[in-house]
Amino acid sequence: MVQQGLTLSKLERDEEALQCFEEALKLKPDHAEAWDNKGVALDNLARCEEALQCFEEALKLNPDYAEAWDDKGVVLSNLEGYEEALPCFDKALKIKPTLCEPCITKVSPW
Question: What is the pTM of this model?
Fold first, then answer.
């Protein structure tokens, strides 16, 4: 279900992707990647507060999940929570120095 959701996300079919991630979480509620991807789908649907809750859930399950830290930082930044976003990007880069998105987001003026 997670792979199907990722494919639907790439096709910008976020409502359908969200349903896949929710189904995956019904089967395995401790699947950090599914929580993170559900959060991304929710963010794409402009449901930012719900997205943040999903990233928190992913990080409870896997505190070293760099992509979830990055995704949380992106949403906080989009909500103009810049001070809250910076530590998320720093944590993502500390865990996975090759992760490019936090570097770009940290230096972007927008």
Answer: 0.88
